[in-house]
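Each field is listed here:
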Amino acid sequence: MDLSVYRDSFLSFLEKEVEIKEPINLYQPIDYILNLGGKRMRPLLVLMSIDALEKDFHQGMHAALAIEVFHNFTLLHDDIMDDAPLRRGQQTVHEKWGVSTAILSGDAMMILANQALEVYEGTIYKKLMQLFQQTAIEVCEGQQYDMDFEIRMDVTVPEYIEMIRLKTSVLVAAALKMGAIIAKATEKDADAFYQFGLNLGLAFQLQDDYLDAFGNPETFGKQIGGDIIENKKTFLVLKAKELLKGDDLVEFEKYYTNETFEEAKKIEEVKAFFEKSGAVSKIKEEIKSYTDKAFKILEQIEMSELSKNQLVDFGNYLMGRTV
């Protein structure tokens, strides 16, 4: 099945379910962020896993909505914490409506995400809610680690991987497993879908880190070099620090931590060190490694070759993206 079938079905459902009502200043920012676009990767994965298990993917619309609303709630609050001016090439909610409104609209989104799951019954509802709540708290843990790393000078690559597992990958994994739960898959298959998503999510986030530095500013939707300007300790930074020696390391740290350099100059110099250190080739290796691991896990799941190939194609599409 063409991905556009899932996407069109979901977008039409989203439009129907999310409405601007009173009080306008609470619901308009929610409608705004949900309509900024994006790949809709997470809700599509809910639907794809149901379809892969040969059940009607329309059963997963409310779960897909829960995942998408929750994901955008985290983006809304992340943008406040990062003081980000742009999201998907448009003004962020807190820039447009103010921080107080953005916090409250975000809180409402978390509640709406939970309410979306109320259509499911009995055991299915209980399993979905347990997974969703566990995922939500893990995303908060990941965000806290991300903030902690800003003031720590001794962050390691394994710690960084654990942070992105929590902040990004668990939601991708949960999307796939929620679909499997709705399709009444065996526990073994549902867990395999989760592990597939976890590895795909890690590859996706590392790709995002790479694109933050080396992506196309016209298509990436976020400020190129934003992580460098904010001195974030990404995989590229930690790996560059690990690989650079002597004067190169001193020079790199000077550029990376100094606030006085002009932004464009700082980005250019830091990127040059990413290349010189070998950090760029290392991140590409990691992306490939997690993607390959994800595809290997798919082999364990009882489903048709057609379904398997579709999930592989989707993974390759994500890893080949430039936006």
The chain has one domain: 3-319. The CA atoms of residues 81 and 321 lie 27 Å apart. The beta strands are 86-87, 90-91. The first strand starts at residue 86 and ends at 87.
